Amino acid sequence: MKSKEQRAKKRKELIRSFRTQRQMWAISAVAILWAIIFCYIPMLGNVIAFFDYTPGQSLVDCKFVGLKYWIDFFQLPDMGRVFRNTLVISGLSMTVGFVAPIVFALLLNEIHHTLFKKVVQTISYLPYFISWVVVGAFVYNLFNYEFGAVNTFLKSVGLDPVDIYSNKGAWPFILVAFSAFKNVGYGTVMYLASIVNIDDHLFEAAELDGANMWQKIRHITIPCIRPTIVILFLLAIGTIMKGDFQMFWQVTGNNPMVLETTDVIDTYVTRSLLTLQEFGMTSAAGLYQSGISFVLVLIANRLVKKVEPDYALF
Fold first, then answer.
1. Do residues 164 and 252 lie in contact, with contact meaning Cβ atoms separated by under 8 Å?
2. Which value, to the nearest 10 degrees, does the dihedral of the CA atoms of residues 43, 291, 252, 141 take?
3. How far apart are CA 132 and CA 145, in angstroms?
4. Could you tell me the pTM of the whole model?
5. CA neighbor of 72 nearest in space, from 256, 278, 227, 252
């Protein structure tokens, strides 16, 4: 009975919100419409994972093959290696890309020179707006064996050049480093916005009690931005099974010397699509990644809800 009353109360509040906040709902309708057109309607194409689809052919005329492409996907000879690379590189990128913006935002907040702070913020944001094509060219000119900046410097000091493009063990760390270089600055925006909203009286009271900078960060700043940290962590969990395709494709490409450690599900399936034209298997792989990501978000959200119900996404 109580639940029915609660649902009725929420329904009345929603109707009242429509009436009193028409402008906000009108603005939100644009974003909702965009999400429906570009996010939800394309999801209907996932049915290709269960049909023998040929481009240009009507889906009605396609043969239903059930889980054939799913079985083929898991039976690919290199699937173990590709799956491992996806988890390792995406896990490292998520860890560094999650922790680094928090640390960077905390450090920026301690800069009290306004002009210098703005310059540092601007410089840190710029790499986010550079395409991976440009970053790939930058990486090539940095690590090229003959004329790259790194080997040019090594030669100038009398050391032997290093063939990084054949060193498969170094590339996971190089990719993680450049992912952080490109995304960390922009990732600090949410944390800085949360830090700015902290009541200044808390810091003043801490100073009167003799707290130093690290104590204020530990006991005031981090606890106050914890809701933002938890929410962004839940969102980041959903990307662990999906590597940044543009990063892999533009930075390492199809270099056979490093594919053993840099080939992830996205790049492997893309090459299979280009060579075998297996649209069904490609769709099955994408649906598999999305499904696993969705389950991980649900599990993480459930755990957060048990510890701190107010911090959960839903």
1. no
2. 80
3. 21
4. 0.83
5. 278
- Residue 91: C-alpha distances to residues 94, 103, 110, 185 (Å): 5, 18, 29, 19
Contacts for 298 with CB less than 8 Å, ≥ 6 apart: none
Per residue in 22-40, pLDDT tens?
888 888 888 899 999 998 8
Q: Within its chain, how far is the Cα of 32 from the centroid?
A: 22
Structure tokens at 108: 């920026």
Amino acid residing at 100: A
| Per-residue buried b or exposed e for 40-72, using 16+ beta carbons within 10 Å of the residue's own CB | eeeeeeeebbbbebeeeeeeeebeebeebbbee
Residues 6+ apart with CB under 8 A from 149: 141, 142
Asked whether the beta carbons of 232 and 295 are under 8 A apart, the reply is no
Model confidence pLDDT, tens digit, residues 39-54: 888 888 888 888 888 7
Q: Are strands 63-64 and 51-52 parallel, antiparallel or unpaired?
A: antiparallel
- Cα dist from 194 to 50, 54, 230, 285, 308, whole Å: 45, 49, 13, 37, 18
H helices, E strands: number in the chain: 15, 2
State how far the Cα of 215 lies from the Cα of 159, in Å rounded to an integer: 45
What distances in angstroms separate CA 28 from CA 24, 25, 35, 64, one per listed residue? 6, 5, 11, 39
Q: What's the Cα-to-Cα distance from 135 to each of 13, 44, 297, rounded to whole Å?
A: 49, 34, 30
- Give the model's pLDDT for residue 36: 92
Q: Give the whole-angstrom CA distance, residue 293 versus residue 308.
A: 22
The single-letter DSSP state of residue 159 is P
Q: Could you tell me the two tokens for 308?
A: 């701190």
Q: What number of other Cβ atoms are within 10 A of residue 175's Cβ?
A: 24
DSSP, residue by residue, 131-178: -HHHHHHHHHHHH-TTT-HHHHHHHHTTPPP--GGG-TTTHHHHHHHH
In three-state secondary structure terms, 252 is coil
Task: Answer for the pair 172, 262: CB distance below 8 angstroms, yes or no.
Answer: yes
- For the four alpha carbons of 255, 90, 186 and 216, in that order, the dihedral sign comes to negative
